[in-house]
Amino acid sequence: MITDDILYLGVNDREIDLFEGQYVVPNGISYNSYVILDDKIAVMDTVDERKKEDYLANLEKALGGKSPDYLVVSHVEPDHASSIDAFLQEYPDTQLVGNAKTFQMLALYFDRSFDNALIVKEGDTLSLGKHELHFIMTPMVHWPEVMFTYDSFSKVLFSADAFGKFGALDSEEDWTCEARRYYFNIVGKFGMPVQTVLKKAMALDIQIICPLHGPVLKENLSYYLDKYQIWSSYEPESEGVFIAYASLHGNTAGAAKQLGELLNAKGCPKVAIADLARDDMAEALEDAFRYGKIVLAASSYNGGVMPFMEDFLHHLKGKNYQKRTVALIENGSWAPSANKTMREILSQMKDIQILENCVTIKGAVKEEDIKGLEALAEALMQ
Ligand code: FEO
Questions:
Q1: Closest Cα to atom 3 of ligand 1
Q2: Which residue of 53, 59, 192, 335 sits 20 to 30 Å from the alpha carbon of 316, by its own alpha carbon?
């Protein structure tokens, strides 16, 4: 129960192997849906059809024999909208509420028409009785049709994917880490639209945020809004250095770890390290955004850079990576080429400062290489 007359209908999915076909979710994920029980009854989104039976059972129980008047569709992505057909089979008289884009996009996913539609636009309202729903268009957070709904009676913001996180609701984990991984990997490219939405949200009196994934947020809302402010502005969140490495035979990995030790010895507030071949790429991307300084350490390969590093850099570029200080370490036994390739990809990003003290190792890490790493650590600490 969210309030006396707003109920949670969502489901946990712990069986999914990869969310959106690419993200590991060790603690699963929740698909959230809500119902507002008033003179008129509005359901806020459905869930992934993978869980439609559980969902429809939750809905039936919450409705207590009544039928919904409206189904508000905040987001057409299948993890929220693919049960709409099953929903309408059970409750065929329900009116779908969405914007013009919502219905254009539903047509891409369903080979049927949605004739009983209420098309809303920015600023439109819908009265359910006591509850009044205000529709706020939030395009590209993170799809073009996305909209928020603000219930001015209960002061609840239904925020689509925003403020969501990976992890089923019964998993014991902190919000921030999995919300950050979710944000940068799924919404990260769209910082500007998120900033626009935050301005709109600041104008509202919000007591509760109901996202489409993760827990309902009821307390200390400024914490979550502040995180979104930092993340969407691409500013570093934490002091420290993130070291990402891709190593063929362990020498580059050794150099990366040695640099980490040197930084720790110099009192660096935090050193995070990821092996791009073995660790979760989505978490590495999250850490690259979290810290203001990153080190990329890679073996040369095929006249370029080891593919895991190339892949990582393309992920960063795709997510609008910017405003960071970068240090480079390459290894190349007879023809080092990694730094040149990394520089080329970095040059396609905004506001990236590459430190001059780049290190080139040829084979094993030797005494003179340690001196280079020492100088690099010094430069990173400044
Ligand atoms: Fe949770 Fe963009 O779907």
A1: 77
A2: 335
